[in-house]
Amino acid sequence: MASSSPRKSLHRSRSSRHSSSKPHKTEILINVYDLLPPGKLSTTLWHLGSPLLHTGIVITSLNREYAFGALFLPASHPRSKPNATGVYHTPPGLEPEDARFRCSLLQGVSFLSPAELEGVVKDVSHEFKGAEYNLLTNNCNHFSSKLCARLTGKEAPRWMNRAAGIGVALPCLVPREWIGPTEHEVDSEDAEEGHERRELMRQKATDGPGNLKGKMGAADGIMRRRSSGAGGEGKVGGVRDEEGRCLPASEVTPLLRTVH
Fold first, then answer.
1. What's the N-to-C CA distance of the chain in angstroms?
2. Residue pLDDT, tens place only, 123-169
3. Could you tell me how far CA 196 lies from the centroid of its own chain?
4. pLDDT tens-digit profile of 203-238?
5. Which of 54, 61, 111, 171 is the most buried (most CB within 10 A)?
6. Whose CA is closest to 143, among 198, 95, 85?
């Protein structure tokens, strides 16, 4: 009996080393949200494969969903800094304002450690600056595709961003305010106020236990009422992309959740 003890100990030691060296396996998901309200138009575009979408990338081991949005702040703002990223994270499945969840797709898996995954996110985030957000040529779906490629070796399905491609090639087929620059520039104070209101909504949605969707809906109502006088209903503080297009609220980055 005594002679078998060292063997068992050696076996346990080898098993421990083997289990500790086992690679991490993380599912990479794409959460898809429709930017149009329920109705015939959104249903038709969905079935045609060219819906207006917002997407976010869920890294399951980090329990975070990453997305990209516009971030325009005046130089006087305490969080303003050159080349600030527009990439941010939320709890997985939390619906952005003015968007509704459509589906979740398994893009692939990654065997990187959590620290390595965060490193990849930061690297990709440096390429997506908030001030360079463009509704048609540099949007949340471009970011999602790039992050998917880095994490899984393949880009996101092209149909997810087909509407933007159509907007570039055939501008008459998408909403006018999404194509041409508006006649006036966004006021810096409006932009700052819009970001602060959006972050308030995010905090209400995630603060404490309870139904996240219900809390977000209540905050969303406050946001709509306040923003209607500063850039139009559904536009947060009149925030616009780099070419002056009015942005859907879902495409504006919440300040306190940006990737650092």
1. 57
2. 999 999 999 999 999 999 999 999 999 999 999 999 999 988 776 65
3. 18
4. 544 444 444 444 344 333 333 333 333 333 344 446
5. 54
6. 85
The 8-class DSSP code of residue 180 comes to: S
pLDDT digits (tens, 9 = 90+) for 239-248: 888 877 888 8
Own/partner contacts of 77-85, CB < 8 Å, gap of 24 or more, are: 77/192, 79/255, 83/126, 83/129, 83/131, 84/129, 84/130, 84/131, 84/258, 85/125, 85/126, 85/128, 85/129, 85/130, 85/258, 85/259
Return d(Cα 186, Cα 32) in angstroms, integer. Answer: 29
Check if the beta carbon of residue 166 is closer than 8 Å to that of residue 158.
no
Residues 169, 172: Cα–Cα separation, whole Å: 9
* 219, 200 Cβ separation under 8 angstroms: yes
CA distances from 136 to 20, 101, 165, 168, 179 (A): 45, 21, 7, 7, 8
Cα separations in angstroms, 236 against 22, 44, 97, 129: 46, 27, 10, 19
Structure tokens at 163: 């509407």
57 neighbors 87 (Cβ within 8 angstroms): no
